[in-house]
Amino acid sequence: MGLAVRAISCILQSNILSFETPAPVFPAHFCKTGTKVNPHEQICDFGRQLHQRGFAAANDGNLSIRLSDETFLCTPTMHSKGTLTPDDLCVVDHSGHQLDGVQQRSSEILLHLEVYRQRPDVNAVVHCHPPHATAFAIAREPIPQCVLPEVEIFLGEVPMAKYETPGSRQFAESIVPFVRESRVIVLANHGTVSFGATMELAFWFTDILDAYCRSLILARQLGSIHRFDDRHCRELLEYKQLWGFSDTRIHGLNAGCNVCGHEAFGDTWEANGVEQRAFPRVADPAHERATGRIDALSKRLSEADLAKLADLIADRLRPPNGPRPPNGPRPPGTS
């Protein structure tokens, strides 16, 4: 809870997380009032943190900071984020054309620029491949809701964008349906992108998401996860509103909407190939446990074995003189 306590304290002082009030360009470093941030040093610092946490292997990932309405500082392509120096960084315009820097700018800068275009309150973007969140991206498993209070407060519903070739215009545009109502987005079969008023916040949102996904994966190995109910989530949303956070569910608190039901982005799942498999939303915990055991058994059986098992169950349930399926096995003692 240390991260949560510090962040809430800062929000109460600055209210910089509200989506309704754009943050100024180059705000003071989060909770360090009166201290200006060197953007070059900050990108290098958080690049090292990404690498140390295993969020950006080899030359993976990219970071950027808004310098003005027209210019942005970003990491170069083909360079480890763990060994960046200020001289390695590049400056690009709002179209992605490189204006400064001896190295070539990131090939995925269009993704960052789309975030800045859609969100004038955002001053920093982090794209990387945190392993546990990326596991959800590969499985195209939606991030469960109503499991951890901190996730509901700091992230809210986390969407998953459809897969597009990294670096392409289609890749950048894949986040458009979600970017205005989220702080971090899972990129199918790829990784994540997070963004905030400061680089620290953008990094935190990725860090929170990957820690959450790791906990979910560990909990699933022990059995099924347990969610808190709508009432408890509504209480968290009321606190969230009090602290200055924005959440699409806040507007539906008095409308009887299902705040734990993925109502903000669930209608995009089918088109984006997203489906609840490992963490289905099941009202009956006993049914969830039984489903988990059946799923585990089915993975060890071939299709032929499953077909024989289905026929055997049908035979046991059928009356002695009842009809048989055309190709099913005959009960013993019958011709």
Describe the structure.
- The chain is of the alpha+beta class and 335 residues long.
- It has eleven helices and eight strands.
- Strands 4-3-2-1-5-8-7-6 form an eight-stranded mixed β-sheet, with helices on both faces.
- Residues 1-34, 284-288 and 331-335 have low confidence and may be disordered.
How is the secondary structure organized here?
Layout: H1 2-14, H2 39-52, E1 62-66, E2 71-74, E3 90-93, E4 98-100, H3 109-118, E5 124-128, H4 131-139, H5 149-154, E6 160-161, H6 169-173, E7 184-187, E8 191-196, H7 199-222, H8 230-242, H9 269-272, H10 285-298, H11 303-317
Parallel strand pairs: 6-7
Antiparallel strand pairs: 1-2, 1-5, 2-3, 3-4, 5-8, 7-8
Helix pairs in contact: 4-7
Tally of strands: 8
Shape: globular
Radius of gyration: 24 Å
Structural class: alpha+beta
What is the typical, i.e. mean, pLDDT?
Answer: 83
Quickly count the helices: 11
Short description:
The chain is 38% helix and 10% strand. The chain has helices at 2-14, 39-52, 109-118, 131-139, 149-154, 169-173, 199-222, 230-242, 269-272, 285-298, 303-317; strands spanning 62-66, 71-74, 90-93, 98-100, 124-128, 160-161, 184-187, 191-196. Helix 4 crosses helix 7 (199-222).
Provide key terms for this protein:
single chain; 335 residues; alpha+beta; eight-stranded mixed β-sheet; 8 strands; 38% helix; disordered N terminus; disordered C terminus
